[in-house]
Amino acid sequence: MKQAGNPCSAWHTLLLACATFIILGLAACSGTMQTAPTEGQTAVDLELLLSLPAQDISYQSQVRPVLGRRCVVCHGCYDAPCQLKLSSPEGIERGANKNKVYDGARILAAEPTRLFIDAKSTEQWRKKNFHTVLNEGTQEPRQNLENSVMYHMLRLKQRHPQPRVGMLPDNLELGLNRKQTCATLAEFDDFARQHPDWGMPYGMPNLDDAEYRTLVQWLAQGAPMDPPASADDPARQRIEQMKLFYRRHGDTYFNQQNWRRALTYYERYHVIDPDSLEIKRKITICRDKLSELSAASEKPSLAQKTPDEMRDQVKRLLEESGTESTWIMQYLFEEQSGEKDSETPW
User: Fold this and answer.
1) What are the tens digits of pLDDT across the range 76-126?
2) Which residues contact 41 (CB under 8 A, 6 or more apart)?
3) What is the pLDDT of residues 173-220, one digit of tens each?
4) At what angle do helices 326-333 and 307-320 cross, to 10 degrees?
5) Cβ atoms 128, 111 nearer than 8 A
6) In sequence order, what are the beta bridge partners of 131?
C-alpha cells in the first residue's frame, strides 16, 4: 500500500522558495550593488584619466606644438571662428564668443575685442560675452574634462573621424560666409546630435593618438600654463636703454615746445612701458597742443571772405604769377555794360 506524502514538507519547500525571491528582490532594490566600472565611459576617456601623468604636462614644450600644427591655422587670427584664439594661453583662457568680428550685414559698429588690448583679465572678457572652453569650476580631473567645451569638441571628432581619402562629406560647410555655431557647455549635447561630424579640427583629419592623449591629459590636469619666462639681464638692460633714449629725446623736444617730435618719442616709450602715468600725461598735452595749432592754422576759405578780401586776394595771386590782371579783374569784379571788347578773350 502506497504511503501518502508529508504535507508539512511541501509547505516548507514553498515557503523557502518565496523567501528566496523576496531576498533577491530586496537586494536588487536596495541600491547596494556596485557601479559597473565602464559606466561613464561614453562621457570621458577613462583610459586617459587612469594613466594621467603625475607631473604637469608642459604647455610650452608639449601642448603648444600640437596646437600650432593642428589648430592655429584657423584659430590664430583676430577673426578666428568663434573668436577662439589658440595661439596663446591668454586666448585659450579668454574662450569663445558667438559674435562675428567681420559681418557685412551689421549696420552699427561693434565693440572691438582685441586680445591684450580691449580687456586684460578673464573676468573682463566674461563681461564682454566670452564663454569659457575650459573647466572653471572644481579642479578635479574628471570634472576638468566633463566641463570643458574644448575637450568635447576634440572627442566628438575622435568618435566621428572623417575619411582620410576621397571627398569631404556634404554636411561639412566650408564657405567663408557659413553660419557660425559656437556651442557653450550647456548647448553642446544638442550641437553634437545635430552635427556629429563637426568636431575639431573642423574639416581636417582627427588628431593622432599621441596628439589626442597630450591635449586630453593636459585638459584633465586643469590646462596648466607654464610661468612666463623672465627677461635675462642683457635684455633688461637693452629695454632700459631704449626707454631712456625715447624719454630723453621726448623731454628735449617737449621743453622746446616741438609737440610733434616730442609726441613721436613719447608714443614709442609708451609701447614699452604702457603703465607710466607721467608719459601718458605728456602724450595728452602734446596731442592737445597739436590740436590747438591745427585749429589756429586753418585759414578761411575764399567763400568765407568778404568781396573786398576776395578781390585783393585774387589780384595778389595774379600779380604773383606774372599774369596781366587788368582784364581778368574787370571781368570778375566789375559790372559789364554793353558789348564786350572783341579783343578780350571773354
Assistant:
1) 988 899 999 999 999 999 999 999 888 878 888 889 999 988 998 999 999
2) none
3) 887 777 888 999 999 999 999 999 999 999 898 999 999 999 999 999
4) 160
5) yes
6) 96
Indicate the residue type of 40: G
Q: Write out the DSSP string of 277-323.
A: HHHHHHHHHHHHHHHHHHHHHPPPPGGGS-HHHHHHHHHHHHHHTT-
Beta bridge pairs of residue 96 = 131
Q: In whole angstroms, what is the distance from residue 171 CA to residue 196 CA?
A: 10
* Matching residue, cell 607631473: 55
Helix, strand or coil, per DSSP, at residue 115? strand
Number of other residues whose CB lies within 10 A of the CB of residue 181: 14
Rg (CA), the chain: 39
Is the model's pLDDT at 223 over the cut of 50? yes
- CB atoms near residue 254 (< 10 Å): 20
Cross-strand pairs, 115? 119
